[in-house]
Amino acid sequence: MSMGFDKETFKKSVLFNMKNVFRKTVDEATPEQMYQAVAYAVKDVIIDEWIATHKEYEKQDVKTLYYLSMEFLMGRALGNNIISIMAQPEVKEILEELGFDLNVIEDQEPDPALGNGGLGRLAACFLDSLATLGYPAYGCGIRYRYGMFKQKIEGGYQLEVPDDWLKNGYPFELRRAEYATEVKFGGYVNTVWENGKERFVQEGYQSVLAVPYDMPIVGYGNNVVNTLRIWDAQAINTFSLDSFDRGDYQKAVEQENLAKTIVEVLYPNDNHYAGKELRLKQQYFFISASVQRAVMKYMEKHDDIHKFYEKTVFQLNDTHPTVAVPELMRILLDDYGLSWDEAWEITTKTCAYTNHTIMSEALEKWPIELFSRLLPRIYQIVEEINRRFQQKITEMYPGNQDKLRKMSIVYDGQVRMANLAILGGFSVNGVARLHTEILKNQELKDFYQMMPEKFNNKTNGITQRRFLLHGNPLLAQWVTKKIGSDWITNLPHIHRLAIYAEDPRCRQEFMDIKYQNKVRLADYVKEHNGIELDPRSMFDVQVKRLHEYKRQLMNILHVMYLYNQLKDNPNLDMVPRTFLFGAKAAAGYKRAKLTIKLINAVADVINNDRSIGGKIKVVFIEDYKVSNAEIIFAAADVSEQISTASKEASGTGNMKFMLNGALTLGTMDGANVEIVEEVGAENAFIFGMSSDEVIRYENEGGYNPMEIFNNNFEIRRVLMQLINGYYSPQDPELFRDIYNSLLNTKSSDRADTYFILRDLPSYAEAQRRVDQAYRDEAWWAKAAILNVASSGKFTSDRTIEEYVKDIWHLEKVKVELEEEA
Ligand code: GLS
């Protein structure tokens, strides 16, 4: 239990909050009100640790990490925070005394969904690990008014519903008006001469006030509380008569609107860049505020700006925060009067960049026209960075136009953010070993050749505290009973479980827990989607964002194939299987949305066909998000990680499944490679083309799926069912686009860009191995336990230690709480 926690005080605090906030006694309270009252009481405990942590940081004058990210997919805080202050049994008891169930209370909290998928969730796992390991860090992001949309499925189609997560207020956040910062957009740059020196001043601009809200990030049992700082926007001069009189009426209204729209909504694209002006505004908004604040904070304690990098490091979570590079330059040049070389040295020693994808449609390239209009001074600086860099390229590779074309930062009317991020920092990292190798040898080859010392790998990780301790309490207790609780802060210790994989009784215990978790998921799906699941069937799960490269389509095509087999032979000997899907599609991503419809259409036919005796069931779980993910991972038998090799930079869901004892069915892509290395190929089901093969085909212009169509009757039959109304009798043409995408015909893209038909036979074969293996329960239990036991490498604690050692160079801080008098 945390030092700051006292059961009686806590209970009083809950009652006090109930009275003060809601003017109610506990017996009149709704669960939602109870949630708020408890959350405020928990915050009360946290606050003391939060203050103590920051006092300690100040005292030790620590180096601080700023993790700059457009996304933080935090998930619910209450349950996690209660676990982190190590007060779960006590809080549970108190609530029971008051007539409430902690699970129900936790369920009242909206999921703060300020992220899309893996990239945002990684940021959240990193914050958890940083606090638990005791490293001084801020997460810096945007307080979107609407986070990731809520997904409803109607008639098999995805509907997007706004996520009004702040509707009832958010108990854990703290508004810090004293740190409000002005951010300027547009206008023009004026040159003034001061003391014989040129100075650049932005004039005629519009500005907004960035107001930070802080959320506590509570370390596990160590009194450390870090901060996630998300910025809200406010108009600087709210519309006033004063400005009206001055003829500035229009400007006042514009500023008001600008502030409102900037933080209005998170763009729901994952691995995809849409090029919207508002998105660039969002980027500069939170970056300018964060960087200004970081510089101010540094200068409060130090007098020499030249040593800024000794106390500060900025990690750029993908290219989205790259304007940090020219923004820091601007502050150093214009506000501190440094020379270009001085400013450049400080900047490049402060910034580091993580690449999260090789998908070309994710590459951020801003048209010069837009960029320079919105950020005139920043653009000037980018141009100068580019001019100097081009000079360097020309010196190194005289006459080599190809190098200039590929590496320039400003080229062809566009500002290329990845190139700027690579040049503007001292480190470039990929997120899994294979991904980093592809960056070095393919995508970023020219940069790697020029500056190899910057490149390094940091294989992603996940926090076991959320995804096992909180998400799967039955398994967590079982693990602790067997090997003690070290794994909570030292996941590699979980390897001690391996010996229990040999023990028949332990195998049985493990399978019983899996069964109970399947019942829990079945209850969830029944309650939320009204669909019945059979927990005795094998749960085969693919949950992640919907994207063509992730190949949910291959999964459902295989289900269609299996169903055909079953129709041909109703006595087919197979283990009853439930295929579970969960995925949000970007609102404008038509083919992804059609794939959701296809999954639901197939589900409709198969689930209503009594002739197959319930051997296959297909379920699309609505609104996949962090809170139900915790329930889903715990219940999975099979983890579908079937991306086209080379396309999934890392994946992190794969690690969460493994930690919960699901077996991976996957390609040799992203972190799957390392997962298989840890657990052994014999305890996973691997299939499909290698990344080398994929890349070779791509360089040669693709392959011809028509050959497969012509020669493979089973595949042809499945494809024909896409266009003969088998799954859409009302509209046989409904899935034509999907059919076309696989076989080309009219579309301008290459046919079957993601090698779905090419990998389908080997996928089906791997699925047969899964079926066979599951029949041997003893073997399966053993392999599942070995997966849990081999997951040690994939804790984000390990990832963070690697970032600290190779990139950030932070010192661990210990926080002691003073006993209250
Ligand atoms: C992503 C990648 O697609 C994932 O493979 C990766 O695990 C994640 C975190 O590094 O980043 N990149 C992206 O744009 N969205 C992601 O989830």
TrEMBL record:
<protein>
    <recommendedName>
        <fullName>Alpha-1,4 glucan phosphorylase</fullName>
        <ecNumber>2.4.1.1</ecNumber>
    </recommendedName>
</protein>
<dbReference type="GO" id="GO:0005737">
    <property type="term" value="C:cytoplasm"/>
</dbReference>
<feature type="modified residue" description="N6-(pyridoxal phosphate)lysine">
    <location>
        <position position="656"/>
    </location>
</feature>
<keyword id="KW-0021">Allosteric enzyme</keyword>
<dbReference type="GO" id="GO:0030170">
    <property type="term" value="F:pyridoxal phosphate binding"/>
</dbReference>
<keyword id="KW-0808">Transferase</keyword>
<comment type="function">
    <text>Phosphorylase is an important allosteric enzyme in carbohydrate metabolism. Enzymes from different sources differ in their regulatory mechanisms and in their natural substrates. However, all known phosphorylases share catalytic and structural properties.</text>
</comment>
<comment type="similarity">
    <text>Belongs to the glycogen phosphorylase family.</text>
</comment>
<dbReference type="GO" id="GO:0005980">
    <property type="term" value="P:glycogen catabolic process"/>
</dbReference>
<keyword id="KW-0119">Carbohydrate metabolism</keyword>
<dbReference type="InterPro" id="IPR011833">
    <property type="entry name" value="Glycg_phsphrylas"/>
</dbReference>
<keyword id="KW-0328">Glycosyltransferase</keyword>
<comment type="function">
    <text>Allosteric enzyme that catalyzes the rate-limiting step in glycogen catabolism, the phosphorolytic cleavage of glycogen to produce glucose-1-phosphate, and plays a central role in maintaining cellular and organismal glucose homeostasis.</text>
</comment>
<dbReference type="InterPro" id="IPR000811">
    <property type="entry name" value="Glyco_trans_35"/>
</dbReference>
<dbReference type="InterPro" id="IPR035090">
    <property type="entry name" value="Pyridoxal_P_attach_site"/>
</dbReference>
<dbReference type="Pfam" id="PF00343">
    <property type="entry name" value="Phosphorylase"/>
</dbReference>
<dbReference type="GO" id="GO:0008184">
    <property type="term" value="F:glycogen phosphorylase activity"/>
</dbReference>
<keyword id="KW-0663">Pyridoxal phosphate</keyword>
